[in-house]
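Try this one yourself first.
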C-alpha cells in the first residue's frame, strides 16, 4: 500500500465526487459557489483535488446534491469520524474506536481548533510531543503547552525542539530556567532561538558567576550585547585579556579596544 492509499481522505477522489455530483445536478461551479457563499476558486480547488471542503460545508453540499455525506467523501474511517462529529457523538465514538494521529492530521484542516483539541486529548497519553508536529497548526496553544510541560518533565528540554515554534514563550522560558538549573547553560543551545532574551541574559549572568566567561561561548549568539560585554569586562579584570579569546567574536569593538589598551598599559 502506498502513501496515498493510507491517507484517511483521497482529495482527488473527493474532488471527482463533487464534480460528478455537480454535473449530474446541472449546477455550474459558479452556481455551487454562490449557493455555498464561497469563492468560485474554492470549488475549483476542490474538484482539482487540491483542497477539501470545510466540515461546516459538508451537510450543505450534501443537501444541494440530495446525497449522503458518504457519497461526497471517500469511504473510510475519516468519513465516519466526521459524521460522528457532525452528530455531536465524537466522545462516544472515541470511547469505542482507536484514532491515530495520522488519521487526525488528515482531517485536521477540516476541523475547528477545539475539535482537534478533543482528539489530541484522547491520544496525548500515548504519544510523544514530536508526534504532534503534523497537527500543530490546528491545535490550541493551551493543549500544546500542556503536552510540552509533560514532555519536559519526562524527556528534558531537547524534546521540545521540534515543537518549539508552537509552544508559548512563557512555557519555553519556564522550562529553560529549570533546564539551566539542572544541566547548565549549554543545555539551552538547541532551544535558544525560542527563549526570551531576558531569560537568556539571566542564565548567562549566573553561568558566568558560577563557571566563568568560557561557559557563555555556546550561547553567545543569543546573549544580549550589554550582558556579554559586562561579563567580558569582569573576566578581563579577573583573568586578563587571554580569557576573552573564546568569546571575542561576540564582544563589541569598544570593549575589546578598552581591554586591549588596559592590557598593554599593564604589561609595558
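Now uncover the answer:
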Amino acid at each position: 500500500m502506498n502513501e496515498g492509499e493510507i491517507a484517511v481522505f483521497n482529495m482527488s477522489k473527493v474532488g471527482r465526487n463533487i464534480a460528478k455530483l455537480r454535473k449530474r445536478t446541472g449546477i455550474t461551479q459558479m452556481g455551487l459557489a454562490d449557493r455555498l457563499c464561497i469563492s468560485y476558486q474554492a470549488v475549483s480547488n476542490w474538484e482539482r483535488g487540491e483542497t477539501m471542503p470545510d466540515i461546516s460545508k459538508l451537510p450543505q453540499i450534501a443537501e444541494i446534491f440530495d446525497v449522503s455525506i458518504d457519497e461526497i467523501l471517500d469511504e473510510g474511517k475519516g468519513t465516519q469520524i466526521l459524521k460522528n462529529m457532525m452528530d455531536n457523538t465524537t466522545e462516544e465514538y472515541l470511547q469505542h474506536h482507536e484514532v491515530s494521529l495520522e488519521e487526525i492530521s488528515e482531517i485536521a484542516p477540516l476541523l475547528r481548533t477545539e475539535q482537534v483539541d478533543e482528539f489530541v486529548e484522547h491520544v496525548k497519553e500515548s504519544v510523544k510531543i514530536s508526534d504532534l508536529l503534523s497537527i500543530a497548526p490546528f491545535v490550541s496553544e493551551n493543549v500544546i503547552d500542556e503536552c510540552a510541560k509533560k514532555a519536559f518533565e519526562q524527556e528534558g528540554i531537547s524534546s521540545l525542539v521540534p515543537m518549539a515554534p508552537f509552544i508559548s514563550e512563557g512555557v519555553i522560558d519556564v522550562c529553560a530556567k529549570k533546564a539551566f538549573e539542572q544541566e547548565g547553560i549549554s543545555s539551552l543551545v538547541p532551544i535558544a532561538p525560542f527563549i526570551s532574551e531576558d531569560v537568556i541574559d539571566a542564565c548567562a549572568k549566573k553561568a558566568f558567576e558560577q563557571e566563568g566567561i568560557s561557559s557563555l561561548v555556546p550561547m553567545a549568539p543569543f546573549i544580549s550585547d550589554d550582558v556579554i560585554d559586562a561579563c567580558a569586562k569582569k573576566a578581563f579584570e579577573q583573568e586578563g585579556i587571554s580569557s576573552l579569546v573564546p568569546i571575542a567574536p561576540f564582544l563589541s569593538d569598544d570593549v575589546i579596544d578598552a581591554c586591549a589598551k588596559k592590557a598593554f598599559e599593564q604589561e609595558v
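Discussion: The chain has 15 helices and no strands. Residues 1-8 have pLDDT under 50 and may be disordered.
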